[in-house]
Amino acid sequence: MTETAPRPTLEAVAARAGVSRATVSRVVNGGEGVREPLVERVRRAVEELGYVPNQAARSLVTRRHDAVAVVVAEPESRVFADPFFGLQLRGISKELTAYDNQLVLLLTEGRDDHARVARYLAGGHVDGALVFSLHLDDPLPGLIQRAGVPTVFGGRPGWSGDRRGVVYVDSDNRGGAREAVRHLAGLGRTRIAHITGALDQTSAADRLDGYRDVMVDADPRLIAEGDFTPAGGERAMRELLGRCPDLDAVFAANDLSAAGALRVLRASGRRVPDDVAVIGFDDMLPVAEQTDPPLTTIRQDIEEMGRLMARLLLRGLDRRNPAGGVVGTPSSVVLPTTLIRRTSA
Amino acid sequence: MTETAPRPTLEAVAARAGVSRATVSRVVNGGEGVREPLVERVRRAVEELGYVPNQAARSLVTRRHDAVAVVVAEPESRVFADPFFGLQLRGISKELTAYDNQLVLLLTEGRDDHARVARYLAGGHVDGALVFSLHLDDPLPGLIQRAGVPTVFGGRPGWSGDRRGVVYVDSDNRGGAREAVRHLAGLGRTRIAHITGALDQTSAADRLDGYRDVMVDADPRLIAEGDFTPAGGERAMRELLGRCPDLDAVFAANDLSAAGALRVLRASGRRVPDDVAVIGFDDMLPVAEQTDPPLTTIRQDIEEMGRLMARLLLRGLDRRNPAGGVVGTPSSVVLPTTLIRRTSA
DNA sequence: TGCCGTGGTGAGAGCGCTCTCGCCGCCCCG
DNA sequence: CGGGGCGGCGAGAGCGCTCTCACCACGGCA
């Protein structure tokens, strides 16, 4: 716990290099319009003094912070039980780092925190925000929109407010679900059940829609509500088995609930995939590879989603146009999914 | 993606309230030494204009940022496969939020990033740092110490540098391990094996030490090296079964590797706990409760560790002395562990 | 009544930076 | 050889805040 030492200022560097503050500033910010010998002298002075620009002073005049808030608005601590957010965070972090932006993490605890987050964002402490808020009734997106902070959402925000200018990155949940169900059908299965995710989230709703796209007139008893957790998967599977003992396949809304379903199936004496084929969603490696048997699933590139969110935001912020593409208001992106075949289906 | 609107300044509030900037500043910062009617007038003006202080301007003069960096220096993306960091982050976030500090997340990708992190910390953008760097040979703690940033480590840093003034928060890994092994011994088990964690981390080394404390002259073949992952647990368990088919208990360095071990034991036809008792470490709920059978384990309060790290740092920063206690250089804290009995042992 | 002490308020400097503008010297062209 | 243009550099203002200090109006005491 040492104390922070006094740090050299632009002034000090200028004095040492024998130039003006303005010139040092120019060199520090890229060196445009300064002749080589001077650039060299300034660089050396910076080096020798260990000069690091004071971000506060800089922000004060540029009104830029080179910082982005990441808002994770999950009511429950379930957030990190899933490796989901972690992976997305990693993708975000990589992209932000590549363009020298900092990541300010805002975790919310329940409703009261929304005001806090909104205040922070409205306070202009960051240049933009990446927001994870997937619940249908979440007031946060609205608050943020009112705060006027450039924002990219993680997952299609399911709220009823003004839709204009809303940018999000999502997986093709519906398409992926269709692919999953078609795969099961292609295996000759006809009694294909679905364990949904938490239906107040758009991803769960979309996957259910995808299931219905293929199973146009499916027996409604083949659908059981889960909540993306293993326990929820177990519950739903037991329910399904009770209602339709003759089912021969299950499409679970994510790998975690598939894992739960798998346990119940085994306990009930069914063999997977012989008696019942099971397919998950996410391709969460530590889960999908570790189940018994290993899980066939729909892969979504979560880290890439994070990276893309950051890239879109930065592009909208006009940060020297990250990674090419046309500058301007970016639009939402829906990433494709892939079927990963293991043994469960 | 709306543009940020121009925000009112102190000046504007002062004008509206008919007072000086200084008075507004005083009110905004607690209102000490300003008479009630004025306070009221200023408050109203702030409210009406929606004034939010410009943090950059404030930092420029106070040299405080009310921001803390959280550095996660895990080489591999394994970081978030474990819910570990997520939980700790949550604890940290809660505490920081309670004292109005922001959380700047710094994830590192391999060695090259160390310099970046060190530069950032040395740059004085944050008031302090919370660092997770548990590897023995990690140069980061040294770099940070040189940067002169007040720091609290998560887990005992295992490095050979200057130890003075190093503050950390850790679980009683050694004591917990002793309790685990004693519990197995109390069950009448005598051939107690140990699956270690990644031994370049202090927590793994400490747990191994704890095991040895009880099993003073254990057969060295009863120890197999794991790496805290389920796959590592499987590998180690197979190794152990090959070397010592007569073992009757296993203490795994964490729940994840215990889950792997459990699978191998079942595949080998052993009954748990009848033939082999198994105990884990961490009490990672989504893992420990979902194994078959549910895992007996050593619980550590991970969220509390995070909270404590933040509290210690803030206290060292002299932030109005969070949560009581003597002000001054804080010292390290080692949190106790608890045995959680489920069915595996 | 006069003086000092005290508490409340305002004026102003200055934190470290960026950016505009103006000056100066050089080169090119007539 | 002179003038205009241009590129390189420095001077200085000002971003929005905090904090010191001086000022003023009281009240208490002699």
From TrEMBL, chains A, B:
Domain of life: Bacteria
Domain HTH lacI-type, residue spans: 8-62
PROSITE patterns found in the cross-reference section: HTH_LACI_2
SUPFAM superfamilies per the UniProt record, alphabetical: lambda repressor-like DNA-binding domains, Periplasmic binding protein-like I
GO molecular function terms noted in the UniProt entry: DNA-binding transcription factor activity; transcription cis-regulatory region binding
Keyword field: DNA-binding, Transcription, Transcription regulation
InterPro entries on file: HTH_LacI, LacI/GalR-like_sensor, Lambda_DNA-bd_dom_sf, Peripla_BP_I
Protein's name according to its UniProt entry: LacI family transcriptional regulator
Source species of the chain: Streptomyces dysideae
